[in-house]
Amino acid sequence: MAKIPKPQELFKSIDYSIPKKKWEDVPPDFSEGKYCYPTKRKNLEYLDFPTNKGEWSPTDEDWQLPDNWEEIIHNGFKERLEKYRSLKVFMDICVRCGACADKCHFFIGGGDPKNMPVLRAELLRSVYRKDFTTAGKILGSIAGARKLTPAVIKEWFSYFYQCSECRRCSVFCPYGIDTAEITMMGRELLSLLGLNINWVLEPVANCFRTGNHLGIQPHALKEMIEFFCDDIEELTGVRITPQFNRKGAEVLFITPSGDYFADPGTYTMMGYLMLFEHIGLDYTMSTYASEGGNFGLFTSAEAVKRLNSKMYMEAKRLGVKWILGGECGHMWRVINQYMDTMNGPADFLEVPVSPITGTRFENAASTKMIHITEFTSDLIKHGKLKLDPSRNDKFKVTFHDSCNPSRAMGLLEEPRYVIKNVCNHFYEMPEGTIREQTFCCGSGAGLNTEEIMDLRMRGGLPRANAVRYVHDKYGVNMLACICAIDRAALPPLMQYWVPEVGVTGVHELVANALVMDGEKERTVDLRGEPLKEEEEDTDE
Amino acid sequence: MNVGYLYSLLAVIVLGLIAYAGVEAAGLQWLFGILIPYLGLTIFIAGFVYRVMDWAKSAVPFRIPTTCGQQKSLPWFTPNRIDNPATTLGVIVRMFFEILLFRSLFRNTRVEIRGERLSYKWVIWLWLFALMFHYSFLIVVIRHLRFFLEPVPWVITLLEKADGVLQVGLPILYISGVTLLLGATLLLLRRVLIPRINYISLAADYFPLLLIIGIAITGIMMRYFTKVDVLKVKELTMGLATFHPAIPEGGISGLFYVHLFFVSILLAYIPFSKLMHMGGVFLSPTRNLANNNRRIRHINPWNHPVKVHTYEEYEDEFREKMIEAGLPVEKE
Ligand code: HEM
Ligand code: SF4
Ligand code: SF4
Fold first, then answer.
1. Which contacts (CB < 8 Å, 24+ apart) does range B77-82 have?
2. Please, what is the average pLDDT of chain A?
3. What predicted TM-score, i.e. pTM, was given to this entire model?
4. Which CATH number fits domain A7-30+50-195: 1.10.3430, 1.20.140, 1.10.1060, 3.40.50?
5. Contact assignment for A341 to B117 by CB distance below 8 Å
6. A344 to chain B: closest CA residue
């Protein structure tokens, strides 16, 4: 991992001044720490994805592009213009008003002009003009057209992997131009040449084979969960025996695999298990459909569909009635905006009905899949949970809206409702940094990889800056979120910018407050730390 | 600094000179007064229709609205019916706000570094200039219908009255003319002077603004300074509108032909340029679709089958381990 400067130095290095050279003449920076590592060939081969000619690194002069690479890009571009009206319209109508320019967290935290969404899109648009528009063909560079060269491909690789597909820019654009959509197309085109990053493709390959991004095999998954149950028993005195791949269960529960694997996601996982036990939910998990997230989204529509197919196929095989999904960000973009279209119709399932409250989730009448905070807020509303929010009293909590649930779904009040019912101290970050205007963790869309820590800390700065604000003002010491990537990405971000603040999933807070039947007196939280801290001090 | 605007400025000046010389020196009134306006209009209509149809031909595989408010889920959470529409009616209202009030542009903020912190400020200048510019443009266009309709409909007369409500000067000053020029100039200055906007601007971004400024200036000069013979102009324009084109006896000043030439160029230019945003905004999938995917299935016309990894393949690979771990399997 490349060394990164101290926070103060990094902050001082933010430079919004404009380079002397035209952007077309500024080459991308491929020094160590500025690029994501390319994927290992075995992943491409396992997935039958296109490959380039041989091993390569972004630092190489020659990227081993296939011989007919220009033709591949041209045809791939043409195909996508026909398949996606979004792409075609967005290529044509940007007026370069600049409203989106300083809305991107990567631009805000770094100042590289090509991280302004409008220029990120121009990288592709300039080639579009040359290849597909009359004005561009005739007038060339005067009309902003640019010939496709290997240098352009390199620039695409650099900047389409400096976009976390968060859609914040789209909120502010007068035409709703969504640079995430453009990045997705750009990444698809790169993928046609065999250019992918390992942090995305390895999870995709793992997920295709083992059912989850981390490549956890069925027996190991069962062991991991049982291990959590041991912890839960120790904390609460209640023994839970969750089941896997069980036919005839009412509900299939699917959550991102990050929740099985690393703290603090694991505490969220324990939270789900305790909740389900408490309400006596008739559910099963699956080792085959053991991933809620979908790194296919960061690769291609084809990859999304290939991975996501497991959810419905497994639901059908097990004969469940409906599917409940865990706390994850991009997963919910896929479920809300793609799944039913791609993998449906799910006519073998039933409209989700909470067996505890009888609430029918009409909003998921076709997809048959609901979000855990929808489910839990319904339980709370109907008074089905015994809660003692004072068990979370040592936490002053704020909430980070993940990009996808907010801008591709609108799941804003559900998590807040849950948090406010399980915690006594909740503070919002300032307007303009939450809800639909929320800032990305800086590591979304497959960018939460170690080698680009500098970029991640810069991209996460706007979020950290808002957390810092509520920390200074209200003493906030806990950042709640509903996303597994957040739970992996926010702890190092907080450690770097606001080390006094911890990170938690919402259902960890729920489980802390949840008074389970037959539980012993609780003195510690899910992390095994005392419920009440004598001295309110930094945790480290 | 990006001086792309110089090319565009030069282009507009040359175009103006061509029309002026063409009429005053070469006597090509029929070319600049009849042929080119018809040509411009034809290109505009055909081009516009072609572009919109071309967009419409592309598929909308997924419903991908950018949601800007609470979704419709459980009854006790108040949904934001406009910024996160769940119904077609909601979408219509959302589009109405976008198109008539530039709703999204109104959200604009600016980032600033204050000491060791970032801060964001709500800025409405772009929204204000854009709104001023577009509405002025709209009113000017509608007012001009007076030249192509006989009798002049009362709505247009009423609009003219309202537009001249300030009652200054003679002929009475139209507010829209001034605000059009002002709006376009402010948008242009923004592009030239703000480094970030300057950096992203292309020649194609300056050209329409300069052309419109050219149109506004020639228009204002004719009306208030050189006092063009309006009756003659109407004779020409009515000829065009009724498809009996003729150049009026006695002639109209060269300035008028420059004005008309600029307008013709603008019309012909629209279909080939970003000015198509006026049509494209209606087709933007992040704005014109409802966020109701989980309730009503959206159909992708090219939804093709993909290679999947089936449960059987999975179990075949891991069966031993699954049995050993006590996990249920299909085939023992
Ligand atoms: C319907 C919603 C519309 C929105 C939200 C919109 C928004 C904008 C914005 C933000 C600009 C950029 C200003 C700049 O920085 O240069 C612009 C420019 C412009 N728009 Fe629109 N517009 C709309 C419709 C229209 C329509 C119907 C026309 C019809 C004439 C039009 C004509 C123009 C022209 C001529 C320019 C200036 C050229 C330029 O800046 O390159 N727009 N518009
Ligand atoms: S806000 Fe939209 S129209 Fe304006 S520059 Fe950005 S993408 Fe283009
Ligand atoms: S989608 Fe997000 S990361 Fe990508 S350009 Fe827009 S604001 Fe930046």
1. B77/A377, B77/A413, B77/A414, B77/A417, B78/A413, B79/A410, B80/A410
2. 96
3. 0.95
4. 1.10.1060
5. no
6. B297
